[in-house]
Design a protein that fits this description.
The complex is a heterodimer. Chain A is mostly helical. Helix content of chain A is 72%, strand content 2%. Chain A contains 16 helices and two strands. The radius of gyration of chain A is 26 Å and the shape is globular. Chain A starts with a helix and ends with a helix. Chain B is an all-alpha fold. In chain B, helix 6 packs antiparallel against helix 9. The chains are: A mainly alpha, B mainly alpha. Chains A and B meet through helix 2, helix 3, helix 4, helix 7 and helix 8 of A and helix 1, helix 3, helix 4, helix 5 and helix 6 of B.
Chain lengths: 309, 276
């Protein structure tokens, strides 16, 4: 609403005399100050904290006061088992979720672009969980995964399988959360793949069929290579999301039992709550380094292949 | 014959699978939300014998001095304000970035991509907010959501603006349009379809956001719906019916968005994704 009223008076006032004269002097109609409001917010609340985090990760910090302690925070991060576990778990979580999302998303997309009935229904149902709140999904699945009364284990027992204790079993807790993450996120992967597959020209498939290629051959030699940009996007997106993920883990296990399902993001929160601000910031820096060290080379690799084709 | 078999056979298998994997958890949530406490505690998938939607509904709303009502108001303010600011600021940046080629473009693109990849540094952000007096305030959180959402929105806007012919700008300039009027009167209305996409995608994301309110807006006075749900989780450990009623209530706004803007949401998420 303010948009329409605010700018007009000034613009109208300026136009007759000053504006044309200025423009003749080479004034661009695309002023740089359009960047300004966004730049101020972005710099103050994103860039400055990011740079500050590098400094404060070397300190013991109370928000008002800090002492420089060198690499101590990082040493602690890599030595204390609870923190180190968070580090390895972050990799496991990111890997499991993105691999499953790539495979399942691809399969679903192939299914949903083939000639089957009820495609509209299937597409909407698979995508809907993407829009649900992580906390809500986390709570619902915590109940469903209840080791004794939960529906999942009761269903498994009905077909004669002894289900694991899911969230309460240290060996399964992290994987359980990762599976729920896949349940929630596979719809986005599938939709991205559908966009990629639909953009492949139909003639390729027709020509291949003429030459007698089976549908498996079509998939591996046409769909898979030509949907590569979609694959790149799904991998990058789910890795960024997976390595940074916090909501689901915090809603379902809070890093437990013990610290067996902690990831870096939850470690950062725990240290922040405990008042170890320097250590928490060091965790942030570690996460930053991991994410960029994985995402940058990977996206360069995936995008370069794309250009070569 | 075989194609028909494939068409229906695969379709039916797929429908059955999605019902088991996706629909049943959602129905389970809805059923548990209307059960009484004892029945809900059994955690099983059954039709409620004692249907008490109204009781659960009022009980959840009135819990902890109508905290959920406060939370809905806060979440609405947060979502509307941050999305409104995001749309205007991101469109301004995207327009100049797409139209004016200069040495700043490289830097701007780099910063936008960083915004997509880099995990925000939490404690330093708290520190900055505190020094500005915005920590634990709604305006502070609104600015946070704006800062973290900018990159994605700028990418969406820029992709769309590249499809608007530049001749339009030139014609307006020749007619004596200044930059402000050119942007807000000529360009901004043309962006309507992408604005709808940005609004829908971002409002679902911000409404569902949990991590940032948890860090930057703790405290009961101005809790958001996600925080309230999280707090109820520890309070209602024995009354799953109330907990699930809460989940049901906060699922309704995104669900309505999905019903009306299905296409925009999917388009926005895939388009933004492919560019990123």
């Amino acid at each position: 609403m303010t948009l329409n009223t605010a700018p007009t008076p000034t613009a109208v006032r300026q136009l007759p005399q000053t504006a044309p004269a200025k423009r003749r002097k080479g004034k661009s109609p695309y002023p740089y100050w359009f960047y300004l409001p966004a730049a101020v917010v972005y710099t103050a609340l994103f860039l400055v904290p990011t740079f500050a985090s590098f400094f404060f990760s070397f300190t013991r910090w109370t928000l008002t006061d800090f002492t420089f302690i060198g690499l101590d925070n990082f040493i602690q991060f890599f030595q204390e088992p609870a923190l180190l576990k968070g580090l390895t778990n972050t990799f496991i979580y990111g890997l499991v979720t993105s691999v499953l999302k790539v495979i399942l998303g691809m399969l679903l997309a192939v299914l949903l672009t083939s000639q089957i009935i009820a495609r509209g229904y299937l597409r909407s149902v698979i995508f809907f969980p993407v829009l649900l709140s992580s906390i809500g999904v986390g709570i619902v699945f915590t109940v469903l995964m209840d080791p004794r009364n939960g529906m999942i284990n009761e269903a498994l027992a009905a077909i004669g399988v002894q289900g694991p204790a899911w969230l309460t079993d240290p060996a399964w807790a992290l994987i359980s959360v990762a599976l729920v993450d896949v349940w929630k996120g596979v719809g986005l992967a599938a939709v991205i793949y559908i966009a990629g597959i639909v953009s492949i020209p139909q003639e390729y498939f027709e020509a291949a069929k003429m030459d007698g290629a089976s549908s498996a051959k079509c998939f591996f030699n046409i769909t898979l290579p030509l949907a590569r940009p979609a694959t790149a996007t799904v991998i990058i997106l789910s890795l960024i999301g997976g390595l940074r993920s916090f909501d689901l883990i915090w809603a379902m296990t809070k890093g437990g039992p013990g610290f067996t399902s902690d990831v870096i993001a939850s470690v950062i929160y725990k240290q922040y709550q405990a008042g170890f601000y320097g250590l928490s910031t060091a965790g942030n820096v570690v996460l930053f380094l991991i994410v960029t060290a994985i995402i940058l080379p990977l996206s360069m690799f995936l995008n370069r292949k794309e250009v070569e084709q | 014959m075989t194609t028909a078999l494939k068409r229906y056979g695969l379709g039916i298998i797929a429908i059955a699978a999605t019902v088991v994997v996706f629909i049943i958890p959602l129905i389970f949530m809805a059923l548990t939300a209307v059960k009484d406490r004892k029945e809900a505690a059994k955690l099983d998938f059954s039709w409620p014998t004692n249907f008490q939607f109204v009781e659960n509904f009022t009980q959840v709303l009135s819990a902890r001095k109508f905290m959920l009502v406060t939370a809905f108001i806060n979440s609405t303010i947060l979502t509307v304000a941050s999305v409104a600011i995001l749309v205007v600021l991101a469109a301004m940046v995207a327009w100049v970035l797409q139209r004016r080629k200069s040495r700043w473009n490289g830097l701007a693109n780099f910063l936008i991509l960083s915004g997509l990849i880099i995990p925000p540094a939490i404690v330093p952000t708290v520190w900055i907010l505190q020094s500005m007096g915005l920590f634990k305030t709604l305006p502070g959180l609104i600015l946070i959501e704006v800062a973290f959402g900018l990159s994605f929105c700028v990418l969406l806007f820029r992709a769309f603006i590249s499809s608007i012919p530049k001749e339009l700008d030139e014609a307006a300039v020749i007619d004596g349009c200044g930059p402000i009027r050119l942007f807000f009167r000529v360009i901004f209305p043309l962006l309507r379809s992408v604005i709808v996409t940005v609004i829908v995608v971002q409002s679902v994301a911000i409404f569902n956001d949990f991590q940032h309110p948890l860090y930057f807006l703790p405290g009961d006075a101005n809790a958001t719906v996600q925080l309230t749900l999280f707090n109820f989780q520890s309070q209602f450990t024995t009354s799953y019916n109330l907990l699930f009623m809460n989940i049901l209530l906060i699922t309704i706004p995104p669900f309505i968005m999905y019903l009306f803007f299905n296409r925009q949401i999917v388009a926005g998420m895939t388009a933004g994704a492919v560019k990123g």
